Every structure is written in C-alpha cells, then in structure tokens.
Amino acid sequence: MTRILFLCHGNICRSPMAEFVMRDLVRRKGLSNQIETASAALHRDALGWPPHEGTRKKLAQQGIYTDGKVAVLACRQDYDKYDYLIGMDRENLSDMHRLFGEDRAGKIHLLLDFTDHPRDVADPWYTDDFDATWQDVNEGCAALLTHILAK
C-alpha cells in the first residue's frame, strides 16, 4: 500500500482538493486497494472545519464529494506513516521540514515538482480562484500518480 499525505496551511482549500482528486483518479484506475490518500494542516487555524466552500463546489462540479472531511493537524509521526508527504507551496515545504525534521527517506515533495513545470499550487484563499487551483491540483495529482506507478 502506498500512502500519500497532502499538506497545506489550514487543510481546507488545496490539500483536501488534492486528497479527493487523487482518490478519484486512483478509484477510476482501479487502484484503491493499492494507494491511500489523506490530507492535513500544518497550522491550527482551521482545525475541525470542513473544506472551504469553494473547494467543495469545485469538486462537486466533477462529481467528487468531501462528506465527513474536516481539517486535521499533521504530526511528526506522519513521517513514518506515509510514503509521500506532499506540500502545495514553498511555505508549506519549510513548515514540513520544521515538523518532520531531516527528510532521511526522501518523502517530502511539492505537488507540482512531479510535473514538467514545477511551481507552487495556486492558493485560492487569497485569490478566490478555485479554477486555477483545480487545474494545478489535477496536473500535479496526475503527474504524481504517473510517478508512483512507474516505480
């Protein structure tokens, strides 16, 4: 079983979008028994909140639902629990290194680093542009899945 944890600041916009997009990709490829996804926050701001309304709406347009998901906090033990720890931007990456310490197993990555155009995932918290985030997350999840399947 390959386990992926998507991380962002509050676990209400980008990381839950990535969690559910990847889960849907995995399901459609018949790999649900091989790849597990989750998401978590790197800060306490929104703990217990459901995904942002914009994230829920964007996912629902694609028939993807986040029922039951609430923001949870990442912890140091997640390093041993997951095979991939995937941040959305460079600030997340810095927070991940602070939380998890030395990346001795090479598990810490940015989502779009798996693509041909590495960059930060657009943050809709500041722009309210969930379309841009959707495009980035889809591109990144598809590339990450390709990477995992090639191993």
Secondary structure layout plus pairing:
Elements: E1 2-8, H1 14-28, E2 35-41, H2 53-61, H3 78-81, E3 84-87, H4 90-100, E4 108-110, H5 124-127, H6 130-150
Parallel strand pairs: 1-2, 1-3, 3-4
Q: Mind explaining what this structure looks like?
A:
The protein has 151 residues and is of the alpha/beta class. It has six helices and four strands, in the order E-H-E-H-H-E-H-E-H-H. The chain has helices at residues 14-28, 53-61, 78-81, 90-100, 124-127, 130-150, and strands spanning 2-8, 35-41, 84-87, 108-110. Strands 2-1-3-4 form a four-stranded parallel beta sheet, sandwiched between helices. Strand 1, helix 1 (14-28) and strand 2 (35-41) form a beta-alpha-beta unit. The longest helix is centred in the last third of the chain and has 21 residues, at 130-150. The model has no long low-confidence stretch (mean pLDDT 98).
Short description:
Helices cover 42% and strands 14% of the residues. The protein is built from six helices and four strands.
